[in-house]
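Work Package 4 report. The design task specified in the project plan requires that, given a folded chain encoded as structure tokens, an amino acid be chosen for each position. We show below one input record used in the internal validation round.
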């Protein structure tokens, strides 16, 4: 998975260390470790967003069932993944 639009991707390959801020502390880490940490954070955020969307859809469905309202059209649609969004952004980039 590619880390989108980060300065780590735009640095010269000869750069071996980077500074990263963690809880108001600046640490010097290797570029490889920085990319790994950022990628892990992105993956964790994706999982949390997916879980929140799933819970929201379930709760909205329960609410509409309790109120005896018809089901919302399109509520069952799945959002685009990060890779799909990046591909879509790349596709639209020449037109923006």
């Amino acid at each position: 998975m590619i880390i989108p639009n980060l300065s780590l991707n735009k640095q010269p390959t000869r750069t071996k260390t980077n500074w990263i801020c963690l809880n108001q502390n600046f640490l010097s880490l290797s570029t490889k470790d920085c990319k790994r940490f950022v990628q892990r954070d992105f993956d964790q955020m994706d999982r949390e967003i997916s879980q929140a969307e799933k819970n929201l859809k379930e709760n909205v469905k329960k609410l509409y069932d309790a109120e005896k309202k018809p089901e919302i059209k399109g509520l069952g649609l799945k959002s685009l993944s990060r890779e799909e969004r990046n591909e879509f952004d790349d596709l639209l980039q020449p037109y923006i």
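Strands lie at 17-22, 25-30. Validation will be extended to a larger panel in the next phase.
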